[in-house]
Amino acid sequence: MPDWVSLCVVISLLISLVTVAGYILYSGLLTDIIVLTGSPPVKKITFAYKFKEGPYKNCRQLFKESHSIGPKLSCIGVFYDDPKKVPGPQCRYAVGSILSEGKNQADEELLKSYETSGFNVFSFPEVTHVVATSFPHRTHLSVLLGVRRVYPRLEHYIKERRLCAHPFLQIYREGQIQFMAPLARQGDFYVPEVRQVERRLSEQEELHSDSELSDSNSEYSSGSGVLLSDSRGTSLAASSVHSVPIQDQGDRNNRGRSSRGTSFKDLDWEQTGGQQAEREEPLHGDSNQKSLEAPTQEWWGAVGGEE
């Protein structure tokens, strides 16, 4: 191979590497991540959404569908479960577009278009305090980088301060991905379908408990008198475990993802602006602290799709 051909190949490879590196850097690879506790990035919002159960990676199609109806609207995703603790098929999420914010009114034509396409409409209140951060949304790769880098920081921040922050919202607007989790009125951020799922799971759990108790009594009643006596004690013990009344299944699930036992009132506020901030720093081997590495592995290929 002539020398000039080899030189051209080397130059082409160098150009390709520089281009790829520049693309990754532009997408936010080295962006400084600052986690704040303070006012939310959005006011009261009304949004159109579709609710789904399943792996979070499947939500990309909903983002695309919602964005195609209202391309000028901000997209929003609400994620209710931690994929590390909840099986993929049972993870719950809502994806859609923000129709109005604050005192503004939703566009009636857009509203009808979303409803015709099978979207529901719901409103989230404006809360006083949230845990929040942002990440640039410049390319499709920005979504992957943002989710991988932001959620470990949020997890560390919330655990370190023992906060109760849930669910997690992602808002795509003005070239930014806004990540936030409310510290108050969390129940108001759960769309009605979430409650329906919780009631269904509660009913299934009760049916399973009743069936297990019935099978246990039937099995042991055919044995000797001594065995029957012993088995009743065992059966009652099992029943006491499986048949505990579920007083508030919703609250239990609401806290399941990120409950830390304290609220924003326990924070030591800084003098400037009443907000706490934490810059991205390397995490040093604390084996007792779990990161959101596993959830981000599930989410990276899904969230976003606005561009």
Automatic annotation (TrEMBL):
Any single biological process term in GO: protein-DNA covalent cross-linking repair
The Polar residues compositionally biased stretches are 231-242
InterPro entries the UniProt entry points to: Reg_factor_effector_dom_sf
Q: According to the lineage, what is the superkingdom?
A: Eukaryota
Comp. bias intervals (Low complexity): 214-224
List cellular component terms (GO): autophagosome membrane; endoplasmic reticulum membrane; nucleus; replication fork
**Which intervals carry biased composition (Basic and acidic residues)?**
201-211
Which residue stretches belong to region Disordered? 201-307
From the Swiss-Prot or TrEMBL record, give the protein name.
Testis expressed 264, ER-phagy receptor
Give the species this sequence originates from.
Perca flavescens
